[in-house]
Design a protein that fits this description.
Elements lengths: L7 E7 L4 E4 L5 E9 L2 E3 L5 E3 L3 E8 H10 L5 E15 L2 E15 L14 E3 L2 E2 L18 H6 L3
Parallel strand pairs: 6-8
Antiparallel strand pairs: 1-3, 1-7, 2-3, 3-6, 4-5, 7-8, 9-10
Amino acid sequence: MSSIQTQQSVAGFVASDPQLSRTERGDARLYMKIGIEHYRREADNSFTKLETTFHDLIAFRAAAEYGHQKLAKGDNFIADGRVREYSYERDGQRHEGEEFVAARLGHDLARTRYDVDRSPRTSGVGQDSPARDSAAFTTPERASQPAAAAAAMGM
């Protein structure tokens, strides 16, 4: 049995207009400021809202292009990827920080209303790709069981 691979994730809201640029190699690069709301559970099971924190999020290539097309300031999102620490020097001063590098990025299903378009997706912006093989996701049929066997198993 293989183990479930995990990554870091972050959920929040888009706090600035997403900005799309290009790297030196020509890859798409998305930058946006994100906000994360924090809450504290109280003894009576109520929640107290704490100060919202703001962070940098970046994404590259297809995640950057689709993120720029689909996300707007104020949208609730979920992203998975990793936190990257960085440092640089400017005007003789050393600056340090961290940013979230998103490998996947999309709307938060629990906080966003939208319609799903299940037409075949393109592999790159404006390029066709093969449709998903839905047969790969079908549930195998189970042999029918006598009612007594089902009852014995607690069904």
